[in-house]
Design brief:
The chain is mainly β. Helix content is about 10%, strand content about 40%.
């Protein structure tokens, strides 16, 4: 629904280029907090490695690679009320990311443990760009909140097919707002990052 009070006049920016994320390649998980990232925390390997090495709530962990990921937009929420036969729309359900992962038994157990956490993510797209929400000032970035992270038990497809795990989580309506693309400097976020 529209924000109230309404602005004085209608507003719409011009589109110079579209926002195309592509597909999720993997994500950085962190506990939700009010601490913002600086640009170099994300664009340099030294900056990311420092966050990965932390031993407190600022610690960042790198997800396994996402295989065949999809993000389905949430369904429109309609009220029981209508006006002249037209339902009143009150909002939108969360988007849902679903992907497959190749996991070890140990990493599966660690993924299950994350289900009890309040988490946010930084996206690493399959085109090797980093996507984060703009923060309180230029050069500062925030996590994208997620909910209901869940990893299913292993799916065995038989000889000649890899074992796989389905992973899903919800992303609140409007998660795309204030999303910014950052380019890594001299490293590949998709391939070069390792947990410690």
């Amino acid at each position: 629904m529209a924000d109230c009070p309404l602005s004085t006049a209608l507003e719409m920016g011009n589109i110079d280029c579209t926002l195309d994320i592509g597909a999720f390649g993997r994500v950085l998980f962190q506990r939700m907090n009010q601490i913002e990232f600086e640009t170099t925390d994300l664009t340099t390997k030294t900056g990311i490695d420092a966050k990965i090495a932390k031993t407190d709530s600022e610690k960042v962990i790198v997800s396994p690679k996402f295989l065949t990921p999809t993000v389905a937009a949430g369904d429109v929420i309609e009220s029981d009320l209508d006006f002249q036969g037209i339902k009143i729309v009150t909002g939108e359900n969360a988007s849902t990311l679903t992907c497959m992962m190749r996991l070890t038994s140990k990493v599966y157990k660690q993924m299950k443990k994350l289900e009890g956490e309040s988490l946010g993510i930084i996206i690493i797209s399959d085109t090797d760009f980093i996507w984060a929400k703009s923060g309180s000032a230029a050069g500062k970035y925030k996590l994208i909140p997620i909910q209901t992270l869940f990893t299913k038990s292993v799916e065995l497809a038989g000889h000649g097919e890899p074992d796989k795990y389905e992973v899903s989580f919800g992303i609140a309506q409007g998660w795309i707002e204030d999303l910014e693309r950052l380019e890594a400097t001299n490293y590949s976020p998709l391939f070069d990052l390792q947990n410690v």
